[in-house]
Amino acid sequence: MAEAKSPSGLSKVLNAAWVRPFLFLVVIVAAWDLAIRLFHIPAYQIPSPGDVVAVLWSDWPELLRQSWPTTYATICGFLLSALFGIPVAMLIAGSKTIESYVYPLLVFSQSVPKIAIAPLFVVWFGFGIIPKVISAFLLGFFPVVVSAVQGFKSVDPDMVDLARAMQGSRFQVFRAVNLPHAMPAIFSGLKVSVTLAVVGAVVGEFVGSNSGIGYVMQRSIGTFDLPTMFAALAILALLGVILFWIVDRIERLVIPWHVSQRDDIIFAS
């Protein structure tokens, strides 16, 4: 019986996870450039991809320097979201009394636009990094709590009863049953949280800042420098993708069994 031919190098490259999004991005950029040429859209409304690439090339050192405050505020806000969000979710999932008091307030807090309360942080904490970190934290906190609560509540009660029947303490049962079962949901919330933390950091920079990508965007809007504004948007998108990828890598290290099952389902479909 003849052996199946191994896939060629080109086939492996085309089947790589990053190739399809990259090709789709190329199609979007090509359609963007084509639309500008066909409909004669003026540069003061939408810049051409070439102009944006030129700004990225010429102003890359400045954009890289301005991206550091945004990255720092995003990471700090995201870490605070995880640090506080997961314990709060544990309390909500473990006590119906706490859930009845806290959960409605969390939902209510999401109806308040963060851009509306961000100026208060500037009044209270000044123009430093703290208002940006708080804005990033507030946007990233809720997805972590909601996903973690769902994960903790989805634990099979029979598994918990079996662990308790084996004379496991409450902490041992939580470590061996509840937490591993909830980890996929927790990481799903963390992935959403890290992208929203980027938005929160930029919101804080919009309100009051003299550095960061949000400051670059605000300055570009004031001078109608749309190529620089689009370049700043590209930097933010890249930042979000990188942070999302880092969280995904951590998930693969922490819960490899779930990731392998998820990948098998995706590739099988």
TrEMBL record:
**PROSITE patterns (alphabetical):** ABC_TM1
Task: State the membrane topology.
Answer: Multi-pass membrane protein
Q: Could you tell me the keywords of this UniProt record?
A: Cell membrane, Membrane, Transmembrane, Transmembrane helix, Transport
Signal peptide limits = none
Entry's transmembrane regions: 21-39, 72-93, 105-127, 133-152, 196-217, 229-247
Q: One Pfam family name from the record?
A: BPD_transp_1
Q: Kindly list the places in or outside the cell where this protein is found, as annotated in its UniProt entry.
A: Cell membrane
Task: Identify the main location.
Answer: membrane
> Quick check: keyword Transport in the entry?
yes
Q: Which residues belong to any copy of the ABC transmembrane type-1 domain?
A: 67-247
The record, for InterPro entries, names: MetI-like, MetI-like_sf
Q: Which CDD domains match?
A: TM_PBP2
Q: Which family does it belong to?
A: Belongs to the binding-protein-dependent transport system permease family.
Tell me the protein's name: ABC transporter permease
Q: Tell me the organism.
A: Bradyrhizobium brasilense
| Lineage summary | Bacteria, Pseudomonadati, Pseudomonadota, Alphaproteobacteria, Hyphomicrobiales
